[in-house]
């Protein structure tokens, strides 16, 4: 019996494949529609979508058209084809604006772009797109049960953008281009004022200003040491118990000493 089991499984698969191929060639669209939904319910998304794709042009303009298009988009989502799924969900919104599936489609368009958002070191086009789409969804459906979920995703995406901005600024700092580092760190603060990097950024601005002053020509030293002192007050005023406090005080004292001399 154990020897026969693999043979039986192969035979059943072959029979199932033959039935599916026969169904694809059939002109019985009611049966195709029924079987497509059955395959979808069984999580056989490849076969379900094969039938949905055949049904799209046939059922266009009928009461079943939006269902076919909507489930086809979901088939791609479940198979990890997020780029195509996002395209279909967006196309659904534009084509079937009055469907009862449209709210779900708009959320899924945003969520697919969220899934496409890459690690911080890569281009963040999908990240910005996802944030924009989640914001649009929340403005259109302010009473949705998914508002908290959307806020969570947006915060996560913004943290990723903040990390990318912070890392970009750190490149200037690590290369010793302290003037560019100050600009980049300030830009990061302006765009992401409440990020988890705020304390480190403000400290690095202080240190960058000090190092910029140290390596400046004589005519610019006084101005730049004064900017360092001003930056010190901003930093310790906001983070008086920072782990960088002692080094910040050292920078302040050295700057003051230069200014007195």
Keywords:
261 residues; rod-shaped; mainly alpha
How do you describe this structure in short?
With 261 residues, this protein is mainly alpha-helical.
Please give a structural write-up.
- The chain is mainly α and 261 residues long.
- Helices cover 79% and strands 0% of the residues.
- The chain contains twelve helices and no strands.
- Helix 4 (65-78) runs antiparallel to helix 5 (82-95) and helix 8 runs antiparallel to helix 9.
SSE succession: HHHHHHHHHHHH
User: What ranges have pLDDT less than 50 throughout 5 or more consecutive residues?
Assistant: 4-14
> Main beta sheet, described?
none
End-to-end separation: 97 Å
Which structural class is indicated by helix and strand composition? Answer: mainly alpha
What is the share of helical residues? over 70%
Query: Averaged pLDDT, please?
Result: 94
Strand content: under 5%
Total DSSP helices = 12
Question: Could you tell me the radius of gyration in angstroms?
Answer: 29 Å
Q: What's the total number of strands?
A: 0
Globally, the shape reads rod-shaped
Oligomeric composition of the shown chains = single chain
